[in-house]
Automatic annotation (TrEMBL):
<dbReference type="InterPro" id="IPR016164">
    <property type="entry name" value="FAD-linked_Oxase-like_C"/>
</dbReference>
<dbReference type="InterPro" id="IPR016171">
    <property type="entry name" value="Vanillyl_alc_oxidase_C-sub2"/>
</dbReference>
<keyword id="KW-0496">Mitochondrion</keyword>
<dbReference type="GO" id="GO:0051990">
    <property type="term" value="F:(R)-2-hydroxyglutarate dehydrogenase activity"/>
</dbReference>
<keyword id="KW-0862">Zinc</keyword>
<dbReference type="InterPro" id="IPR016166">
    <property type="entry name" value="FAD-bd_PCMH"/>
</dbReference>
<feature type="domain" description="FAD-binding PCMH-type">
    <location>
        <begin position="55"/>
        <end position="235"/>
    </location>
</feature>
<comment type="similarity">
    <text>Belongs to the FAD-binding oxidoreductase/transferase type 4 family.</text>
</comment>
<dbReference type="Pfam" id="PF01565">
    <property type="entry name" value="FAD_binding_4"/>
</dbReference>
<keyword id="KW-0809">Transit peptide</keyword>
<protein>
    <recommendedName>
        <fullName>D-2-hydroxyglutarate dehydrogenase, mitochondrial</fullName>
        <ecNumber>1.1.99.39</ecNumber>
    </recommendedName>
</protein>
<dbReference type="InterPro" id="IPR016167">
    <property type="entry name" value="FAD-bd_PCMH_sub1"/>
</dbReference>
<dbReference type="Pfam" id="PF02913">
    <property type="entry name" value="FAD-oxidase_C"/>
</dbReference>
<keyword id="KW-0479">Metal-binding</keyword>
<comment type="function">
    <text>Catalyzes the oxidation of D-2-hydroxyglutarate (D-2-HG) to alpha-ketoglutarate. Also catalyzes the oxidation of other D-2-hydroxyacids, such as D-malate (D-MAL) and D-lactate (D-LAC). Exhibits high activities towards D-2-HG and D-MAL but a very weak activity towards D-LAC.</text>
</comment>
<keyword id="KW-0560">Oxidoreductase</keyword>
<dbReference type="GO" id="GO:0046872">
    <property type="term" value="F:metal ion binding"/>
</dbReference>
Amino acid sequence: SPPAAGAPERLPFSRVTEEDLAFFRKILPGRTITDPDLVESSNVDWLKSMKDFFSPAGSSEVLLRPQKTEEVSQIIRYCNSRNLAVNPQGGNTGLVGGSVPVYDEIILSTSLMNNILSFDSISGILTCQAGCVLENLSLYLEERDYIMPLDLGAKGSCQIGGNVATNAGGLRLLRYGSLHGTVLGLEVVLADGQVLDCLASLRKDNTGYDLKQLFIGSEGTLGVITAVSILCPRKPKSVNVVFLGCETYEQLLKAFQLCRGMLGEILSAFEFLDSECMRLLNTHLKLPNPISDCPFYIVIETSGSDPKHDAEKLHNFLEEAMASSLVSDGTVATEESKIKALWSMRERVTEALTHDGFTYKYDISLPLEQIYQLVIDMRQHLGGRAKSVVGYGHVGDGNLHLNITSSTKDPALLAAIEPFVYEWTASCRGSISAEHGLGLKKRNYIYYSKPSQAVGLMGNIKAMLDPKGILNPYKTLPDDVK
Ligand code: FAD
Ligand code: MLT
Ligand code: ZN
């Protein structure tokens, strides 16, 4: 069927032939998947929204499952020579349509590249293949008294290569910083099949341009990440989580200020959700509110090295926050099961939304004071047209997740949301993608956050590294940059 309005035209890549399949089967015996039933789940994104986005989306017939860098190199070299398009795929939890093919691109999955290559228990530097699942890495490290510097709700499925390719933020960024700081080295297969070995595991290395940075957040468009070296923090000896309620967003911000001042170096997360999120958690996941009903909820995590010292600091903060009426109710958790239960109130909002209907997702960076105003303005702007308009996110990082649902896909609602949401964001000099990337869905809105000169330079970099454009075509860069 012809592509729907707004969908990209299929570019003139070759189509996979029997000879191509014979080549892949020789390199990857038993790991060249063509059974449509087995390929299907790799054609469908986590949100199951791409087929709604436009009709032939996700029609790949080939799924390749390499185990070694050398296999990836051989595949990519061959695809480049044959002009075959390739979609690198990790855990397929991406939220912007970057992880699944648009047409018939070959899916190159890193799922079998899941070996830990080394761990230095003195420096805390972990080196592993790109397909290691984030949660498995966390479990491996915890046994050795370390943790991963990032954590996100999709940890059970997402892979470190996918995390790096999207420059995932998540729940610990406030404390440990972004992957641009914690990733020390990468191994990447370039579009011509060359293996770029920047897998250094040094804290400091100013020998020329820091090339690995280009691949962090490049969403599979510049190379296939095959291995990652990452700096891991020590496992904190004491972790506390508090779940608090606030009457207004202004009070929530004041609580954040107070919290930064009083908790200082032990603060490891400051997250929020609004009462609409709580309603969805109650309704769709049957998760009861652990405190009394409030317009806003905060999840604060502390991680430190001295349980007594941390408890005292937290106690003083809570006392002050209550005394100055910044928070109206709250509960504290120190044991692991309760910590998990409180975290799930924040982590499972994404899942609750999928049960509410068709979800329009926005992942916006804004100055802290403006974060919730966008939710209020959007509610007013949409009137009764949406089913739910909810706000949650990484308030400590200035990152709002604005999500809007409708019972079914609703083009009139979408026309009311966009470009309103992007214009609003641009007017505050915010970012239209804080942490999820641009993928297929957001790429044409890049100009709301980047000047055309910067986008042009991105196009030059893409043309230099991938002259035939075989790596994840139709993603990240807008239509007018080929
Ligand atoms: P995929 O979804 O498979 O791929 C994502 C992109 O990276 C695609 O463009 C793909 O082509 C590319 N890619 C994947 N692997 C490679 C590779 N080895 N080499 C080159 N390119 C590659 N994101 C956040 O930032 N913060 C969050 O808090 C967060 N929470 C989430 C919670 C839930 C419940 C879900 C479903 C998603 C969440 N996400 C979050 C989004 C998503 O999990 C992240 O973007 C994650 O980093 C993607 O990893 P993945 O392995 O699933 O990659
Ligand atoms: C989150 O912070 O929960 C994730 O980024 C997922 C989402 O935006 O729903
Ligand atoms: Zn997030």
